[in-house]
Predict the 3D structure of the following.
Amino acid sequence: MPMQRANKEKLVFRSYIRVRPVTEEDIGDIYQIAASVGKGAKDSNQGFLVDDYASDQGHYMDKFLTLSRRLEHFYVAENVAAPGKGHVVGFLIAYTREQWLEDNPEWIDEVKWHPNFDAERLNDFVVIDKTAIRAHLTGHGIGSELYKRLIADIRPKGINTMMAETIISPVPNFASLAFRKKQNYFLAGVRYEPYLGEMYTDLIYYKDISEF
């Protein structure tokens, strides 16, 4: 397929994407998406979520349901041209500073901050915890649409910093790293986290949205 035609088709598909806050009725779709990219085996090039969601459906569906009731920045992307089952094609979960530190009280101290990182940014920020897209629909700009909605909602509150973690060890998430580059993120620090008997290495990135 010629590049020009492929790009045009992606833009046409993107025009059918609507981003809105999550509802409890979306939990089943969200779990299916998470389980499709959060498996036991991790694919560095495709991108992945860390947890093995398929291992315990009930637990993770309850967790998503709790987050849908608690978080103000939990969004889904839906294909409005295909209503019905499977119309939710992606989701984004973000925490405010207060919510993130409530769940991760030692996080700021655990991060080895980059010497050039402005610590003033830690006064107010959001952390993007998870972003996932149906595997066959990656590359269509759905993630970018989710980010646009988040930015539109937090900028009026005076929040100018978005942060996110990307795993580089024991399995590097190359797809996530590529997305950080595409979205103009900058390295803020590194964090080491024990998980299931292994030591994980997370790169912490930040994005300045003050000029969006």
Remarks:
- Residues 3-9 have pLDDT under 50 and may be disordered.
- DSSP finds seven helices and eight strands in the chain.
- The first helix runs from residue 3 to 14.
- Strands lie at 17-21, 73-79, 88-96, 112-113, 126-133, 161-169, 186-195, 198-208.
